[in-house]
Structure formats: structure tokens, C-alpha cells
Amino acid sequence: MAVKKRCLLWDYTNTGDSGVPWAMDKVNFDGPISSVSNWNAWVPPELNSRAPFRPMVHLEAQLSGNDWDMIQNTDQPIIHFFNEPERAGISAEHAADVWHNQMVPLREQKGKQLVSPSCSNDDAGQAWIADFMGRVSDKAPDYLGLHYYGTDGNAAIQFLEGMHSKYSQPIIVSEIASIDRDGASVLGFTSQLANYMDGADWVFEYGFFGCMRQPPDNFVSPAAQLMNPDGSFTDLMDKLMYDQPIQG
Q1: What beta strand segments (E) does the chain contain?
Q2: Which of 21, 74, 98, 176 is the S-S candidate for 46 at Cβ 3.0 to 4.6 Å?
């Protein structure tokens, strides 16, 4: 039986008339894929309830209006809070205030499980999450959200283990990928980390970046993309959908 921990990071641009919503029909939901995220509060209609959705309070805009209504009324059990807030000018102090005032009531009144802000694995991200976690120790998250981008699989594992040891929280790696431009290196990193996380009982879920037609910037590696420009899936996506363990 498959270990279901792999969250499909389905870019919001795949949805709608200008997207490739039909590609969702090609996703294998009978293997290791556990859930779907699009970095938003709204569910991609093409998901059609085939897997759990992970709504996200991406940044400040999702704390009011229609997005917040969707967050408050979601029937999904897990809610993500803030995506790399340290890069958006959001202080840990302010985020902690929002956490106590808006996020914690979702847990206490509606039974939702809450994911901490997911910060970068760089120094600025780690300083931010340390500040935040210290401010919410009275109402700690259910899961520690993490991002990791790099080229060294051993270093990635060391980072994950260090964060788990430091905070003693179950972990959701909401974004991870190799940034190497070499396809063989990317496959090696992906297989090493996926196989490791599948076997780590303290890793609840993880998502490899990302299922989109074009890389969003020059930081991420084209060799790590899970979707081709025409909406078809790459070999790496096929491995994540079907292979367990993944052969590197």
C-alpha cells in the first residue's frame, strides 16, 4: 500500500480557460499523492473532490474579504498560514498577532489543524520562524511548515532533521526542490528526499515544486518542473505519482 504524503503543488495558472485544467484528469490519485495545494484559499474546480485540498492564507490579502470567507468556511481539515512572509515585509510580531486573533479560533471553534508560516531555508527565513515560534508557544501550530531549495540531498535531510529536533513539531514541507540545472542531479535529489520523507514518521506531508507550465523565475530549475509547457507531465512528475520508492 502506498505511503500517501506527496502534496501536488498545482499552480493556480493551470485553472480556467487560459489554463490546462484537463491535465488534472491525468493525475494518478491512487498512488502516493495525498493532497493538492494551489497557494490560494479557493479550490481548483478541476480537482472534483478527488483528493483533499490544502487551503492557504498566502499573505495579508487572504485575511479579509472573499478569501477569508473561504478560509473560515472550508470543509478541509488543514489550513496553511503565510508563504515566505519574511520576503513580503510581514514581521513575526504581526504574524503572531494574526495567528492568535484569526487562525487559532479556526482550531478552537472549528477543529482545524494549522500549519505555521512556511519560510525559506536561508538565514532570514530561519530567523523569522524562530521569532514567530517563540511568540506563539502558548498556541503552537499543529505542523511546522518548511521550504527547502538547494542541490545537496544530504544537506536537505540535515536541515529537516535539525528543524524537527529544534521545534519538536510534525513537519509539512510545503515546498521543496533541487535548483540544479542537471536533470540527473535533480532526479538524485528528488529520489533521495522523497524516499527519506516517506520513511520519516515525523514528516506528515511534502510537496515538490512545482506543477506549472513555466518556471515562475530564474531561481527554480527547469529540470525540476513537473509539467511541460503543453500541460503534459514530465518524467519526474510520473515518478512522484507512481514510484515508491523512486529510483534515482
Answers
A1: 6-9, 33-37, 56-57, 78-81, 113-115, 144-150, 171-178, 203-208
A2: 21
